Prior knowledge:
Elements: H1 18-22, H2 32-57, H3 63-66
Amino acid sequence: MVTEKKKINWERTEDITVEEVKATEGMKHFTDEQAKEFINLIKVYSMCIYALHKREVDGEIDLEAKIIELNNNEELKMAA
């Protein structure tokens, strides 16, 4: 069975809705409150990424100098 995929409108002018979040596979079980929190998370994350990108484009930062290794593969020492 071939399913038709919806095209993504990358030029949206309105926020994603609770109904759209809850219609997404893997998020069908969200409550309305959880969907609202998810929408807020996406907004904040998007604003952070955009601000970082803009600062890089404007020459305010050098991303290569700002990379922080989160997984340095060093074994953690366990306290006794």
